[in-house]
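Example (one chain per record):
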Amino acid sequence: MTHIMFTFSTAFMLGLSGLTFNRTHLLSALLCLEGMMLSLFIALAMWCTQNETMMFSSAPLLLLALSACEAGLGLSLLVATARAHGSDHLQNLNLLQC
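Predicted structure:
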């Protein structure tokens, strides 16, 4: 495993561990998801440049576009949750109530 690959794997695992262990606020969960997507984007871009393949050259841009859509959807859910419940605490959200 190269040094660069280890760095991006560690960044992804830190985002994943932050997502699993720190589930108090919706905003912190969204930030962990964005960190994971950023590490995936950089790793995919580095992989495409190392292999010098033109077949997968559009994959990082597609991942970046999906990440932007995910961020927009997450922020809209954050605003809707803050308006409906008054805060973004995940413990206050009960999915069984309408």
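Caption: The chain has one domain: 3-85.
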